[in-house]
Write a structure and sequence with these properties.
The protein is α/β, with parallel strands linked by helices. The chain is built from eleven helices and five strands, in the order βαβαβαβαβααααααα. The chain has helices spanning 12-23, 37-47, 63-71, 88-96, 109-120, 128-138, 146-153, 157-167, 172-179, 183-197, 202-211, and strands at 3-8, 28-34, 51-54, 78-83, 101-104. Strands 2-1-3-4-5 form a five-stranded parallel β-sheet, sandwiched between helices.
Length: 216
């Protein structure tokens, strides 16, 4: 299965470089390019990519606002943020906007390709430089609402174990190994859990796990 990708960056040089890297993989195909947030949203609407690789700082509509709009489309792409900045507010705002991952622009080509594939599979790749910030930004924020407490209390023991693994950022392969099941089975279990807790992606599930103290 080939993953269709949208690349959005206001620098033509950077954009062309990203396209060349992504097109070097048989697993990826760039179906659209965009030079700012507005053109990114328009391209996502018309080309229906599986993954949008989006820069944060772009003229007009920035990457964060574009991410929010793309995630609201009838067929929303998963968004992977790629930027030169790792400040706390960008990390948290990007994930809050619905991004599925966050990488810095010095990410090696092989890691970038792998991250795009992971996002397409529903995973949440985070650059090591920002991973710790994500946990810290989600720790100590608003307590669980009454509805969230009730939902967490309704989780079966295996589901509690599973959401804890997601909170630690484990991949499907790592979860499968820990639970002694096939990777496809682990992927299905994760998908069912996300549906049960009303999470759109693993970031939201991880955030709930951390807030509920299930990923200590």
């Amino acid at each position: 299965m080939v993953v269709h990708v949208l690349v959005a960056d206001d620098s033509e040089l950077v954009r062309r470089g990203l396209v060349d890297v992504l097109e070097s993989s048989d697993e990826l195909h760039v179906v659209a390019q965009a030079w700012d947030g507005r053109s990114a949203v328009d391209a996502a609407r018309s080309a229906s990519p599986d993954v949008a690789l989006v820069d944060i700082r772009m003229p007009g509509l920035d990457g964060l606002a574009a991410t929010r709009e793309m995630r609201g489309l009838p067929r929303p792409p998963r968004v992977l943020i790629l930027t030169t900045f790792a400040e706390d507010e960008y990390v948290r705002e990007a994930l809050e906007a619905g991004a599925s991952g966050f990488l810095l622009k010095d990410t090696p080509p092989r890691e970038l390709i792998r991250a795009v594939v992971q996002v397409a599979e529903g995973l949440t790749p985070l650059d090591p430089a920002v991973a710790g910030q994500v946990v810290e930004s989600f720790t100590g924020i608003a307590r669980l609402s009454a509805a969230e407490q009730e939902m967490v209390a309704s989780l079966a023991p295996r589901e509690v174990e599973l959401i804890g693994m997601i909170g630690h950022g484990w991949s499907n392969a790592q979860i499968a190994a820990a639970l002694h099941v096939a990777e496809g089975t682990a992927k299905s279990q994760v998908s069912r859990l996300l549906t049960k807790i009303g999470a759109e992606n693993r970031v939201q599930a991880a955030r709930l796990a951390i807030r509920a103290g299930l990923a200590d």
